[in-house]
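User: Okay, second chain of the day. Same drill as before: sequence in, structure tokens out.
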Amino acid sequence: MSINTEQFAAANKATVDSLLSVANTALASAERIAALNLNAARATLEDAASGVKSVLSAKDPKEALAVQSSLAQPAVEKAVAYSRSVYEITQQTQQELAKMVEAQFGDFQKSVAGMVELASKSAPAGSESAVAAIQNAIAAANSAFGNMNSMAKQFADAAQANIAAVTKKSK
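Assistant: Same drill. Structure tokens below.
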């Protein structure tokens, strides 16, 4: 059972393609977060300048306090909106990466299953227990991956429910 040059080249190309996909997804996410941060910083600066002007244009201290108090609620709403945006970007990136991992794991499963089948056909007589042990190990790995994937989805669902609850409270 030997790997020929074409199989090796194809495996290397697939690995490079996978790494590029992950890197591009991570960079796109970082770019979106950076743009969000720049926009939030710009809006915060504008709001602060506007707030200072409003407080300074007040006719008396009571009006200045009222103006200052009225600025707090929009700031909280903007902070919640910012947090929601960061969460959404992170969630989308996580989903894209999870899809890539699932696809790669599916390809890996097929490849390993093919190799095990080839090995079992060419295995010497009496090695059935070794082949069965390998098949059991692969089944255990598949089960562990399924459980891990399920737990990650449950965590993501819980986080999304928490974000939704916080968003409803702030409205």
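The longest helix spans residues 61-122.

User: Thanks, on to the next one.
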